[in-house]
Amino acid sequence: MIGLIGKSTRNFFTMSLDLLGMLTITVRESIHLKDSARRKMFWFLFKRQLYNSGFKAAYINALIATILGWLLITMTLSLLPKGVDFVDYYARIFYIVSVREIGPLISGIILISRSATAVTSELGNIKLKGEFDVVTAHRMSPVFLFCLPVFYAFPLSLLMMFFYFNVVCVLSSYAILLIFTDFGSALSLNQYLITIVDKISIIEIITSMGKACLGGLLIGMISVLFAMQVSDKYTDISKAISSSATTQLFVFFLINVSFSFMAYR
Amino acid sequence: MKLHVDNISKAYGDIQLFRDTSLLIEPGEIICIKTGVLDGGTTLLKMLAGLTEPDSGKITLNNKVFSKHEPTFLFKNVSMCFEEGGALDVFSNYNNIVLPILYHQDIDPDEIHHRIDRIGTMLNLLDHMDKEPFQLNDVQKRLLNLCRALVIEPSVIIIDELQSGMSKDIRDNVINFLLSEQREKHFSIILTTTAGDRTDFSDRVYRIENYNLIQESQ
Q1: Kind plus residue range of the DSSP H or E element containing B6
Q2: A119 burial class (0-12, 13-18, 19+ CB within 10 angstroms)?
Q3: Torsions phi, psi for B104 (to 5 deg)
Q4: B182 CA to centre of own chain
Q5: I need a surface site. Which of A6, A52, A153, B61 has the fewest CB within 10 A?
Q6: Nearest to A170, CA basis, from A77, A58, A62, A81
Q7: Phi/psi at B30 (nearest 5 deg)?
Q8: Residue A14 backbone phi and psi in degrees, to 5
């Protein structure tokens, strides 16, 4: 038992140091963005990564947000105390449930399951096939080529996903309200949106941005870190994907709770 | 650009590959190295490209060891064509050629496109540029490596077993095109060959024997 605790502790600190090292190297590599040739190449890789991780995830994000919007309306209708304004009460539930917790959490889970696993798989394959030799042969930095786009695109993707999630959730709630209840006809979209936006404070925005930046960054770096642990067996790739996804889920959940705790206690 | 192999030795564990081997490649020379199975041909080329270090001795490019040159200088002057792979599967064949160039040079993309168009046509690769490396056969992958090297226009091209698996017609076309480019651009070529490959176009031919390079009479 003591041995197991010791091994887990050692693994945790080794991984943390590796992550820190990788972050340092990636930040240092950003200096090359001053060079116009490298910037062109980075832009190409960054757009490709952002499209894959941020834009292509929009439909699943929107689908889940629509379902949550429906759930929130149902929840509001069932919990609404007498004499309390419906939209005001809904706005409170919306920002507690969607903006603060579920939106970031679902977006993080989507980023991990769709994009982070893909990055681990792609880089793991490159490592397994010895394709890093090609990168070395062309005197390119693997960090610039593979870490830098993830480093910048993942936080931005997560931020975009938070945004879509909340917008779709609010709009789908309004659509459901309009179609299935009597509240909708008495409430304009403008009035509905103003009431909700009024409830969102600057703290909510900063907290969400913090979750997106740190969460996206760590999800991306953990993907790369585990991909680099692939050695010479094909099964190393599947092991890397599952270990990386497990670690990312834990780390992201921890970040989400820690930020919420600090901001809203 | 002069490439000088000065008394190098290389071993992997108990397996000795080279011992006190020397070779001088002058600008514009074409050298063929006949290789067998696991006799160190690829390792020698990787050492010549600066991708693997010799255990002792040194390899210099214009009188400076590789580590003393800037990466961009090395990229512009030495290109390695791999026998297997040599391309990143996560990018298209076209991007496998373009990205290394964009990384090192602030060059007009139209200029790169023009070069790829001309060389790709001559190597019958143009229809495959939008595909990915795994969709190419072994010969096409080697041609993709060659196409990239020719697009870069370096001073030294190092080619590992280019002719393997090629029909006589394809081999003759590729070698004739390579030689016409070499005459125009004056780059050096170091090429490993196997049994049945052409070596008649080279200035010197070597074989690997007793951990050394032995020059054959032409």
Answers
A1: strand B3-12
A2: buried
A3: -105, -25
A4: 13
A5: A6
A6: A62
A7: -115, 120
A8: -60, -45
Tell me the chain B residues in contact with residue A136 when contact means C-beta distances shorter than 8 Å: 51
The rounded Cα B166 to chain-centroid distance in angstroms is 17
CB contact under 8 A, A137 and B102: no
Chain A residues with beta carbon closer than 8 angstroms to that of B84: none
Tokens of B6: 């000065």
Beta strands in B29-82 (DSSP E): 30-34, 56-61, 64-65, 78-81
Q: If phi over 0 gives left and psi between -120 and 50 gives alpha, with beta otherwise, what is residue A83?
A: left
Q: For residue B160, which of B138, B177, B148, B142 has the smallest C-alpha distance?
A: B142
Chain B residue numbers touching A40 (CB-CB < 8 A)? 102, 106
Cα separation values, A67 from A139, A193, A228, A236, Å: 49, 19, 38, 37
Residue in A127, A134, A145 to test binding to B, most B beta-carbons within 10 Å: A134
Amino acid identity of B119? I
What's the CA gap between A116 and B179, in Å, rounded?
46
User: Which of B80, B86, B102 minimises the CB distance to A40?
Assistant: B102
DSSP for B153-170, written as a single string: --SEEEESSTTTT--HHH
Half-sphere exposure of B70 (CA within 13 A, CB side): 4
Q: Which residues pair with A1 in a beta bridge?
A: none
- CA atoms of B188 and A17, how far apart (whole Å): 46
As beta bridge partners, residue B79 has B157
Contacts for A32 with CB less than 8 Å, ≥ 6 apart: A38, A42, A141, A144
CA distances from B61 to B5, B57, B65, B70 (A): 9, 14, 6, 12
The gap between the terminal CA atoms of chain B, to the nearest Å, is 24
d(CA B1, CA B78): 9
